[in-house]
């Protein structure tokens, strides 16, 4: 077991209003609980826990397909077989509760006036107008995680900066998440999803209360959220569609639990999911074709014409909701991509809470995920909202993409990627 020594320090941290939840500037300032306050922290000697062992519950999952296994029962089995994973089980329980709550909100959004914008003219950190359900889902997930008692730091798509958890609830885990991805599809009743990834904290932070300044050591504490995807110890997504499914990996393969609305429980419906070696579907936003670099265009043209390695013409499917497109790709095979283009020179998707968890899950199912240059899981994020190109799917399809793309890689370099715009 590794021991780290961290200086004890009690700085003051600046308390700024948040852009994501605040009222428009002309109205009175938001109440204190709605502000983006960074809490005062102190540092101490910490023991960095080893990564938990792989979970040998695969056999159990196979057998238990004969009788319905709830996610709760599965988690209890994980805890029984892995004494050091009790906290992780508590954490996933918090997430499954949040997913049920968000599924219920999404399901009745049309009849409870939850569709549409949160506040006209109020933008989040990405410059996008937030939907009511973006804001609500963020609160639901944040609270479920906070009060699980297992959290140290959380980072969300909907928050400007990572959030440290108050001392009384502090735990050992770092969770990154996108509470409601694909929310531009909401008002049309199309699928949306929650994406999450779990790391172990590398720096320990003791959080006391809300104070008034921040220094480099506190930033180090928040940098717990900037770990490469390779260090994820769990990830998952919840898809809100014709049914609600929680697709999860604790590092032991990929398993799908479907919400049985009659009993209010997630029930195991697919154990040890394996992505097909090759598919016949491509899922890219085709309207960007003329904005892509030549390598991507050449690859897509081969799929359209059937001049690719499998000599078969591929079908196009693109929902425009990451969770839905990745879920279909995992189950049916093929390739999903949001590459860089002339407008989005770093791609559009966020490395920390979109690309990395999805890459981890796809690899757990035997697939591959890349930027076109590097394996997604090898990238160390420089900022919490950094964007990266994402190509993932069946191993043979991704390999073929890399070959074709590699032939004209120089073309990407001529796009003059401005790295700052990725952050
Ligand atoms: P959305 O803007 O609706 O939130 O990253 C967000 C995302 O959706 C992904 O879910 C989706 O894959 C992508 O953007 C779609 O982008 P385009 O509309 O540019 O295709």
List the helices and strands and how they pair.
Elements: E1 2-4, E2 15-16, E3 36-37, E4 39-42, E5 46-48, H1 58-64, H2 71-81, H3 86-107, H4 132-146, E6 151-156, E7 163-164, E8 170-181, E9 192-200, E10 206-210, H5 216-222, E11 234-240, E12 244-249, E13 255-260, E14 265-270, E15 281-283, H6 294-305, E16 315-316, H7 322-332, E17 335-338, H8 351-364, E18 368-370, E19 390-393, H9 395-407, H10 409-413
Parallel strand pairs: 6-8, 15-16, 15-17
Antiparallel strand pairs: 1-5, 2-3, 4-10, 6-7, 8-9, 9-11, 11-12, 12-13, 13-14, 17-19, 18-19
Bound molecules: 2,6-di-O-phosphono-beta-D-fructofuranose (FDP).
The site of 2,6-di-O-phosphono-beta-D-fructofuranose has 12 residues, from loops.
């Amino acid at each position: 077991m590794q021991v780290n020594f961290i200086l004890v320090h009690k700085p003051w941290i600046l308390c700024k209003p948040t852009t994501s939840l605040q009222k428009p500037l002309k109205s009175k300032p938001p109440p204190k609980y709605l502000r983006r306050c960074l809490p005062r922290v102190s540092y101490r000697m910490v023991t960095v826990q080893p990564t938990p062992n792989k979970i040998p519950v695969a056999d159990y999952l196979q057998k238990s397909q004969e009788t319905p296994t709830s996610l709760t029962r599965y988690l209890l089995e994980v805890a029984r077989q892995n004494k050091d994973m009790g906290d992780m089980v508590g954490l996933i329980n918090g997430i499954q509760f949040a997913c049920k709550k968000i599924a219920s909100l999404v399901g009745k959004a049309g009849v409870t006036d939850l569709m549409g914008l949160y506040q006209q003219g109020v933008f989040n950190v990405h410059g996008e107008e937030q939907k009511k359900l973006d804001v609500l889902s963020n609160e639901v997930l944040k609270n479920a995680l906070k009060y699980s008692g297992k959290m140290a730091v959380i980072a969300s798509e909907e928050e400007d900066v990572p959030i440290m958890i108050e001392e009384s609830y502090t735990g050992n885990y770092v969770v990154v998440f996108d509470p409601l991805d694909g929310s531009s599809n909401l008002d049309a009743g199309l699928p949306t999803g929650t994406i999450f990834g779990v790391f172990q904290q590398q720096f320990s932070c003791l959080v006391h209360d809300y104070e008034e300044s921040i220094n480099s050591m506190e930033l180090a504490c928040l940098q717990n959220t900037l770990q490469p995807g390779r260090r994820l110890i769990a990830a998952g997504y919840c898809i809100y569609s014709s049914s609600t499914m929680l697709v999860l990996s604790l590092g032991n393969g990929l398993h799908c639990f479907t919400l049985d609305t009659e009993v209010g429980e997630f029930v195991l419906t697919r154990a040890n999911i394996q992505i097909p070696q090759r598919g016949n579907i491509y899922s890219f936003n085709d309207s960007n074709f003329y904005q892509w670099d030549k390598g991507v265009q050449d690859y897509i043209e081969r799929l359209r014409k059937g001049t690719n390695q499998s000599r078969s013409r591929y079908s196009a499917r693109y929902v425009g909701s990451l969770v839905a497109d990745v879920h279909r790709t995992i189950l049916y095979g093929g390739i999903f991509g949001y590459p860089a283009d002339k407008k989005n020179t770093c791609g559009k998707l966020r490395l920390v809470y979109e690309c990395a968890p999805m890459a981890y899950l796809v690899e757990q199912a035997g697939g591959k995920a890349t930027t076109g240059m590097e394996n997604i899981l090898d990238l160390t994020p420089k900022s919490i909202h950094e964007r990266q190109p994402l190509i993932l799917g069946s191993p043979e399809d991704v390999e073929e993409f890399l070959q074709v793309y590699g032939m004209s890689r120089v073309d990407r370099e001529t796009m003059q990627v401005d790295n700052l715009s990725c952050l």
